[in-house]
Amino acid sequence: MTVLILTGEEDVTADMVVVHLNASGVPVIRLDPADLTASAALSGEFVHGAFRGHLSSGGRLVSMSGLRSVWVRRPGTPAARAPQPSAWLTEESAQSLYGLLRGCGARWMNDPDAAGRARHKPWQLRHAQHSGLPVPATLITTFPRAARAFAERFPDLVVKPVSGAHPQEPPRAVPTSRVAPGTDFDAVAYGPTLLQRRIAKRADVRLTVVGDTLLAARKATPADADPDHVDVRFAPSGTPWEPVEVPPRLAEAVRSYVTGAELAYGAFDFAEDADGTWWFLECNQSGQFGFVEVETGQPISLTIAQWLGRPGPREPDHADGRRVPVP
Amino acid sequence: MTVLILTGEEDVTADMVVVHLNASGVPVIRLDPADLTASAALSGEFVHGAFRGHLSSGGRLVSMSGLRSVWVRRPGTPAARAPQPSAWLTEESAQSLYGLLRGCGARWMNDPDAAGRARHKPWQLRHAQHSGLPVPATLITTFPRAARAFAERFPDLVVKPVSGAHPQEPPRAVPTSRVAPGTDFDAVAYGPTLLQRRIAKRADVRLTVVGDTLLAARKATPADADPDHVDVRFAPSGTPWEPVEVPPRLAEAVRSYVTGAELAYGAFDFAEDADGTWWFLECNQSGQFGFVEVETGQPISLTIAQWLGRPGPREPDHADGRRVPVP
Q1: Which among B36, B37, B45 is the top mutation candidate for probing chain A, defined by the most A β-carbons within 10 Å of its own β-carbon?
Q2: In sequence order, which residues have a C-beta less than 8 Å from that of residue A186 and are 6 or more positions away?
Q3: What are the DSSP calls for A280-322, one per residue?
């Protein structure tokens, strides 16, 4: 039973996981959808009520019924490196590859449809509320008067993009920024704007969930930190990421979140306030984890390898095309 | 409780449904995502564990908690008609609109994530097999030798696109065509190819599913029809669409399909062979129904209006971000 990893050739984070899979003798096949139809190939046959599928990549051929899990890491655009790339070929290749894999019965990290839904930040905020996670007061709006009223109730605000990243090649993250007092909100009418109560934080928390394993890391905010440096990704880094225990009630809420979201992997970002409350900022279903593992020594890549490589039964309901909550 | 219809201004099929909703006094709001952020606006607030959302379109303002259902008809590209359109604005607007609506608790026709999965033809074929529908022998492949072997086993084949439609503006359908004997399959290596055993058909069947209502129409193939005219959409039309009873076993399989696919609406295409067997060709989750209603007089738009307008409880699990099979 093989693990399929959908990612590009240069992906050191995937390499970290592959090392563990190799060490435990689990067969791995790596396929970049961009290599369809050059060095990667696919085939699926539906005859007499049965299905037989095959994938080939880097000279190796595997049966789809022999896939125990699929890790959607950093797949390229399907057929992007084909001899004659086109939007049509990309669409045909995407539908073929993901359509065949959706029906093959392997466990997904993450299921593509669940992942698509989980990327929506408004849905994340609502789902976090329902899961019992503390969510900072947030407004997403194109109404200037709604923005003004919100800023009166919550004068200390940050602004951030709704979708998270600029749709560019390579994608560029937009930092979260403080909203200056007396800001004119007229321009809100020209594009949805996400305003959120700023958490006066004493630490950033990254909680990585793999199956039912929770691994949290904490990065203390230096006492002399500039309060305008809201976004940990762009702030000067004086303190390290360190492992931290997950409070039991929060762990329960996080498990409720990933079960409801049907995710096998999620990278949660929290802001810890002066009372020690962890405020939900987002859950990135494809979030990076290499930097946390390197700084904390937490066995994230090993845990992912164990989840992917676990023999266990394939999902019967998945084979049936039905979704089931990820165990 | 209002029905939200996501579609463009000119959509006579939507108009047919709106007539019925108006007649029964159900409030309707029509919104084209392309009108964000010009004549359409949105707002959603997450405060103290609760959510309040609003939409405005054509000068009307509705609360999202007052939406009983959302009909995803023919929505435009978000923010396409904004004063300064951009890929970034489209992404922000799409995430905002569909993210807020995903968490608002209304019933969907169709749920966007279920719809995304249901568009994959390979997944459709596998799901149809599992649901007990007869599926013609089909191969999707980039291996020329697999295509050759398949053509030896099934000499009478048709070829059609995997993704269904050319990714163009306006989208252009590619007709299903017969494969000539002795075809050279070398070019299969350059793009996924869908080959399917040709059903020598005596009729085309269009089965429209709305909730738990099944409405089937049949178009007899004229005795003197050219067997090269495989695709009913492009064949000369000598015979009309006429209502037809759905065989009970097939009805059961179709219900299993839509329940498993979590669809509230689906347009199934079948080919009826000389034995009367209905062979599954595809299920289009956004398929047109106007032409069938006009020719057969079947109350499809009325049934859709009834589904959308039904007071019934909102989906508790949907509000929770969880999917539930469509009743």
Answers
A1: B45
A2: A144
A3: EEEEETT---HHHHHHH---HHHHHHHHHH------HHHHTT-
Model pLDDT for residues A275-306, shown as the tens digit of each residue: 999 999 999 998 889 889 999 999 999 999 99
Helices A12-23 and A300-309 meet at what angle, rounded to 10? 60
Q: Does the distance separating the beta carbons of B87 and A99 come in below 8 Å?
A: no
- Chain B: closest CA distance from residue A263 (Å): 12
pLDDT-wise least confident of B237-246, B253-262, B297-306: B237-246
Chain B closest CA to A88's CA: distance in Å? 6
The average pLDDT across B309-326 equals 52
Distance between CA atoms of residues A93 and A79, nearest Å: 6
B215-235 pLDDT per residue, tens: 999 999 988 878 777 777 666
Q: Which residues of A touch B160 (CB under 8 A)?
A: none
* Structural domains in chain B plus CATH codes: 2-110 (3.40.50), 111-136+199-285 (3.30.470.20), 137-198 (3.30.1490.20)
* Number of Cβ atoms within 10 Å of the Cβ of A249: 10
**CB distance from A316 to chain B under 8 Å?**
no
Give which of B62, B108, B117, B323 to mutate to test A binding, by max A Cβ within 10 Å: B117
Interchain contact A48–B (C-beta under 8 A): yes
ipTM field: 0.90
Of the candidates B88, B130, B192, the beta carbon closest to that of A167 is on B88
Q: What's the confidence (pLDDT) of residue A202?
A: 94
Structure tokens that stand for B255 in this block: 């219900």
Share of chain B above pLDDT 70, in %: 90
Residue B318 above 50 pLDDT? no
Residues of B in contact with A129 (CB under 8 A): 46, 49-51
d(CA A202, CA A205): 10
Reported pTM: 0.91
Q: What is the pLDDT of residue A92?
A: 94
Question: Which tokens hold the place of A35?
Answer: 């290599």
Residues from chain B contacting residue A195 (CB–CB below 8 Å): none
Residues in A touching B189 (Cβ below 8 Å): 37, 41
> Residue with structure tokens 């080939």?
A56
